[in-house]
Amino acid sequence: QCEEGYICLQGYGDNPNYGYTSFDTFGWAFLSAFRLITQDYWENLYQLVLRSAGPWHMLFFIVIIFLGSFYLVNLILAIVAMSYDELQKKAEEEEAAEEEALR
């Protein structure tokens, strides 16, 4: 059943990428969004959405790619910095313990 003003194309064909690229259910949509945020072959998803839904959806991709990438890079840098800080503190504690043992 199609809403008024829409055309349904049932049986038109399978979803792209062997059925993995789809917004038919929440799970497949989440997988596509995760693929976009991690920038894993996102260009193909971008082209498919633009061809099927129109050029206005480019704004969504611009926001996600630029802001999502910025957030992801900052998150990774924060984790690396925290790990480095913890390792540095452990090394200082070990040096202090060695100096105490030598006295």
Automatic annotation (TrEMBL):
* One Gene Ontology molecular-function label: voltage-gated sodium channel activity
In the UniProt record, does the keyword Membrane occur?
Answer: yes
May I ask which residue range the UniProt record assigns to the signal sequence? none
Q: According to its UniProt record, where is this protein located?
A: Membrane
Principal location listed in the UniProt entry = membrane
Asked whether the UniProt record includes Iron among its keywords, one would answer no
Which BP terms from GO are recorded? Answer: membrane depolarization during action potential; neuronal action potential
**Domain called Ion transport: residue spans:** 13-91
Highest taxon of source:
Eukaryota
Q: How does it sit in the membrane?
A: Multi-pass membrane protein
Q: Spell out the GO cellular component terms annotated for this protein, sorted alphabetically and separated by semicolons.
A: voltage-gated sodium channel complex
Family matches, as Pfam families: Ion_trans
**Keywords tagged on the record:** Ion channel, Ion transport, Membrane, Transmembrane, Transmembrane helix, Transport
Q: Where are the transmembrane segments?
A: 58-80
Which PANTHER family does the record associate with it?
A: SODIUM CHANNEL PROTEIN PARA, VOLTAGE-GATED CATION CHANNEL CALCIUM AND SODIUM
Q: What name does the UniProt record give this protein?
A: Voltage-sensitive sodium channel
Question: What organism does the UniProt record list as the source?
Answer: Aedes aegypti
